[in-house]
Structure formats: C-alpha cells, structure tokens
Amino acid sequence: MTKSGKRSAPVPLLGAHMSVSGGIQTAYERGESIGCTTMQVFTKNSNQWNGKPLEAEDVRAFRSAAAKSRIVPVVAHAAYLINLCAVSPAILARSRAAFIDELRRAEALGLLGVIFHPGSHMGAGEEAGIRLIAESLNIAHEQTPDFSTLTIVETTAGQGSALGYRFEHLRSLFGLVMESGRCAVCIDTCHLFAAGYDIRTPEGWEQTLRQFDELIGMPRLAVVHVNDSKRELGSRVDRHEHIGKGALGSDCFRFLMNDDRFASIPKILETPKSEDMHEDVMNFRKLKSLLRRPGISVRETRPPRS
Q1: 243, 253 Cβ separation under 8 angstroms
Q2: Which of 4, 35, 37, 298 is the most interior residue, by most CB within 10 Å?
Q3: Which of these, 278, 264, 177, 276, lies nearest to 223 by C-alpha position?
Q4: What CATH fold (topology level) applies to the domain 30-298?
C-alpha cells in the first residue's frame, strides 16, 4: 500500500540474460544494477562441451547473493552445442552428458530450471527426432532423481531441421517422457512469430494461447523470452531485435505485459546488448511503458465487436 492508502501496482517480473564474468554470483550485482526482478544465466561456457566444475565456494557465493537479492526466480540456459536428437552417436552421447551436467549445476545453485533447445533432427525426420529427445530426457531424469530443477523446453523458430517450432512437437514429446511432470516450457516471442504464430493482434494472441493451452496446458508455461524479430512472420529464421523495433512491433508486448495469465511468469530479454547493458534498460522502459492500470488484462481490453 502507498502512504495515501491506495494499492500500488505490482512490480513486473522482468529480467534479462546476465553475464557471469568474474564468478557466477556476479550476475546478481549486474541484474540489480539495471532493475532486474528475474534473470537468466549460463552456468558454464555456452559454446563448450565441458565446463569448469562448480566448487563448493562457487555455490556458497551464489546462494549467499541469492539470499540477499530481490531477483527471483533465476533460470539457466543450456549450452548451445547440446543436441538431444543428434544422429551422430558420439554427439548424442556428449549432448546427453552435457545436459545432465547442466541439470546438476542448476540443482546445486537452486535455480528454477534449465532452458534448452529441443534439438535438430538433421534429416532423420521429426517423429524420429522427437522420440530421441524423449529418450534423452528419460536418461537425464533417471540420472538426476528427486531434482527440483525443471527441464524447460524452449519453443524454436524452426530454422533448419530444428524441432519445437510447433506446439504439437512439444505435446508429442511430453507424451513420451516418463517423468513429464519435471518438464516445463519457455516460449520465445521472436521464435513464435518466426515459426508462423501471428501474435500481433488480440485475436492472434488469444488464438495462439488457446492452442498452447489445448495442446500443452498453460500450467506448463514457466518462462517467456521477450524478443522482437528481425525477420517476417513464418520466416523460420531466429534473429532477435529490440522491443518494438522489429517485425513484431509493440502490440504483442502490450498484450504480454497486461495479460494476467503472465503476471507471475518470468519475462526475460535476450535482445542484443553491449557491456554497459543500456539496451536492457531501454527495453525494460519500453515494456513498462506498455503497462495499463493494475488488474486489467488483454482479455478485458479488446475493442467491442461490431
């Protein structure tokens, strides 16, 4: 409550991907310096198979910073090399080992989950690829019993032979995962648009969410990556742009910021930025400018039908 007795607006759950240069705990200082209330990190080098093991002191420092911070929850993004449906047995084995390591790191740090791209079937076909991803997740879950860290599958743009660009892919995947309750979803606004989901209008936004709920279920939605798109609808090309400066425009982000279904879901930027992170500040400012008064959702603000 404010001094006047009026209820203050809730703080939006907004964050960005933060560097961990200088120690993983330094992400908190960086995030707090630009006003993050949630954030995403890499727990190891994103372009290498193996990472320096997390020492006990690393974990203590991170958890100590977490206990003092208002930034919560924090999620990890898995390394980009991982392909859980690789056709090469050697790459598949390395991918599975690397993903299990990602889960163990996130569990040790107390993170909400590990976000990962489902994988690329490399010509084997979508059905075969989905079956192999499910097999990989089953193996990973078997080797990480009783973990609280979620396995968070990210929707993709569908570039090349990448899977996960249709909600049907994720529905099929979850149907094959034995411990599917450990699985959640991260939707990326740029990826949705590039994959052909037109979320620029109230009708398109609602239709997309209705399909998601029918095929996957809104309770599985754990994170949103908030990115505009450099490329056009259905391009199947993954190129992020600053909020309101790409092919998506501003309206879909207005829907996102005012939709009460997303109020408690972390919304995380992955837009281009420099070392001083002024671009994140610019994008936060843009997103907050789109907020309407508290309690009003996109479903309540549609123009009346004629």
Answers
A1: yes
A2: 298
A3: 264
A4: TIM Barrel (3.20.20)
Residue 232, Cβ density class (10 Å: 0-12 exposed, 13-18 middle, ≥19 buried): exposed
> What letter would DSSP give residue 230?
S
Q: pTM of the predicted model, to two decimals?
A: 0.92
Sequence spans of domains, the chain: 30-298
State the greatest distance between any 2 C-alpha atoms of the chain, in Å, as a whole number: 65
Rounded Cα gap, residues 129 and 13, in angstroms: 34
Please tell me the distance from the alpha carbon of residue 268 to that of residue 226, in angstroms, as a whole number: 6
Backbone phi and psi for residue 298, each to the nearest 5 degrees, phi listed first: -60, -30
Place of tokens 């107390």: 110
Question: What secondary structure letter does DSSP report for 178?
Answer: T
Residue 272, number of CB atoms within 10 A of its CB: 13
> 25 pLDDT exceeds 50?
yes
The predicted-structure confidence for 34-80, as pLDDT tens digits, reads as follows 999 999 999 999 888 988 899 999 999 999 999 999 999 999 999 99
- Tokens representing 243? 């909020």
DSSP symbols for 8-47:
PPPPP-EEEE---TT-TTHHHHHHHHTT-SEEEE-SS-TT
- Residues 281 and 34: beta-carbon distance below 8 Å: yes
Q: What angle do CA 206, 172, 115 make, to 5 degrees?
A: 75
Close Cβ partners of 43 (under 8 Å, ≥ 6 residues apart):
20, 24, 51, 54, 76, 102, 105, 106, 109, 111
The token duo for 204 is 């398109």
